[in-house]
Design goal:
Layout lengths: L11 H11 L2 E6 L8 E7 L2 E8 L5 H13 L9 E7 L2 E7 L4 E2 L8 H12 L29 E4 L7 E4 L2 E4 L5 E4 L3 H12 L4 H7 L4 H4 L3 H14 L11 H17 L1
Antiparallel strand pairs: 1-2, 2-3, 3-5, 4-5, 6-8, 7-10, 8-9
Helix pairs in contact: 4-5, 7-8
Length: about 260
C-alpha cells in the first residue's frame, strides 16, 4: 500500500492547477489508502473540504486509466461521492471529489455494516454498464479469459472490500469505481463473498449474507460454480504485477470446494 505525497511536496504547478479549481488551500490531511494513487489528500479550503487523488509522472498507464474510469463512472452510481473536477499538470493527473466523512466498513462476522454493504450491492446489481472507454469486460479482467463471465452487461465492482465502503450514521458510500468492469450482475456479490471469507466468514455464511441481492439470487448456480472453480486459477490475473498472498489462493480454493459440493 503506497503512501500519499503531502500537499507541500507536490510540484508548484500541480498545486496551482488544483487551487484554480478549489480556491486557496488552507490546510490538508492524508485521506484514505490505496495501492495505485500517489496522491490522496483531503484539502481544506474556504468553501469546504475536497478529496483529491492523483497519479504522478511515475504512475503507469493502468493506474491512470483506472483513475479516469472511476471519474467517468461516478455519475452513474448514486452511492458514489460526486466528482468535482479533473485535471493534469506537470505530469500529474488528478481528480477532485466530494469529501465524505465516515469510517471504513467492517466485514467481520456479525458486523452491522455488512447489511448496509449488501444493500449497496443490490443497487449496483441493477445498474447497466455505460458505454465508457476503458471499461473492461469481466471475462478479460486482469488480462485473462474466463468464459463463465461472458455476456454480462451490468456494472460490477471487482474490489468490494470494507475499505471501499464509507459508513456514516445515515448513509453508506461506495468508492473506488476505477476497479469496475462490465459483467454479470452477480459478480460483485461473488467478489464480496471472498472478502467476507477473508474476514472470518465460512463460505456458506458468506453466500447466505448476500441472498438479499436480487442479482445474486437470480444467478444460474451452475454458472457461479463454474466461475468459482475457474477462479482458483484466473480470479487474480494481476498476480503477475501484484503478487497475491497465499491466503487468497486458499480462500478461492475453499469457495470453489464449497460450490462444487453444494452449488
Amino acid at each position: 500500500m503506497s503512501a500519499s505525497i503531502q500537499w507541500g511536496e507536490l510540484p508548484v504547478g500541480v498545486r496551482e492547477a488544483i487551487e484554480e479549481r478549489t480556491g486557496p488551500v488552507t490546510g490538508s490531511v492524508l485521506g484514505g489508502a490505496g495501492f495505485r494513487t500517489g496522491m490522496r489528500l483531503i484539502l481544506h479550503t474556504e468553501t469546504g473540504d475536497v478529496f483529491v487523488k492523483g497519479i504522478g509522472p511515475d504512475g503507469g498507464d493502468i493506474e491512470r486509466s483506472d483513475l479516469e474510469l472511476g471519474a467517468e463512472l461516478a455519475p452513474f452510481v448514486p452511492a458514489s461521492p460526486s466528482l468535482s473536477f479533473k485535471g493534469e499538470a506537470d505530469g500529474w493527473v488528478f481528480t477532485g471529489w466530494q469529501a465524505v466523512e465516515g469510517r471504513q466498513a467492517s466485514m467481520k462476522p456479525g458486523s452491522d455494516d455488512v447489511p448496509l454493504m449488501v444493500g449497496l450491492l443490490a443497487e449496483l446489481g441493477q445498474i447497466e454498464a455505460p458505454e465508457i472507454p476503458g471499461l473492461r469486460t469481466a471475462g478479460t479482467d486482469w488480462g485473462g479469459e474466463d468464459p463463465t463471465l461472458s455476456g454480462g452487461h451490468m456494472l460490477v465492482h471487482t474490489d468490494p472490500h470494507g475499505g471501499n465502503f464509507i459508513v456514516q450514521p445515515d448513509w453508506t458510500w461506495m468508492i473506488d469505481l476505477g476497479h469496475a468492469v462490465r459483467g454479470p450482475g452477480w459478480l460483485t456479490s461473488a467478489r464480496f463473498i471472498l472478502y467476507l471469507m477473508r474476514a472470518g466468514w465460512t463460505a456458506a455464511e458468506a453466500e447466505a449474507a448476500v441472498m438479499d441481492v436480487p442479482a445474486w439470487a437470480r444467478a444460474d448456480p451452475e454458472q457461479v460454480t463454474a466461475h468459482a472453480v475457474s477462479g482458483a486459477e484466473t480470479w487474480y490475473r494481476a498476480n503477475n504485477q501484484y503478487p497475491v498472498p497465499q491466503v487468497w489462493h486458499d480462500i478461492i480454493r475453499e469457495w470453489a470446494a464449497h460450490r462444487s459440493l453444494s452449488g
